[in-house]
Amino acid sequence: MDSSSREYPLGANSEDFQIYNHELGLNDGEGAVPSGIVAHIESADFDIGNGDQYQFIRRIMPDVSFFGSTDPAPVVSFSLKPRNFPGSGFGTSATSNITATKTVDVQEYTEQAFVRIRSRQMALRVESSATNIAWKLGSPRIDVRPDGRK
């Protein structure tokens, strides 16, 4: 609930019947052992030529700022989630249980991360769950080119 008389919006928890200030602090709750806020953002699918071509991604150039973090080495994870057919699950092969998702940990001064992943469609997910981390996503770049099936 927003209120013009309060600095932070209020929220209620139906499990413990407490009222909390939202957007205040870096961690979840005020208990004896604080836990990190589980946060993520995920893109929609992107492809080349309406999914008619496979794409090969070899590099991610992240754009993340950690202003306000109190952790001395804040980290978020960038994940590329491939799929080859619309409606199929992300990151799994139809003939095996091997996960094809590629995850790269990105720190404050990471300029680029090298990966090797190919598919028709892909989604990018950025996430964190550690304590004392604040992060803001800018405009990451992905080095992608058309490619064949194998």
Overall 3D shape: elongated
How does the helix and strand content classify structurally? mainly beta
Number of helices: 0
N-to-C order of helices and strands: EEEEEEEEEEEEEE
User: How many domains make up the 3D coordinates?
Assistant: 1
Extract low-pLDDT stretches: 92-100
How much of the sequence is in beta strands? Answer: 35-45%
Q: What gap, in angstroms, lies between the N and C termini? A: 52 Å
Taking the sheet with the most strands, its summary is:
5 strands, antiparallel
CATH T-level fold name: Jelly Rolls
- In the CATH scheme, the class would be Mainly Beta
How much is the radius of gyration in Å?
A: 19 Å
What is the CATH architecture descriptor? Sandwich
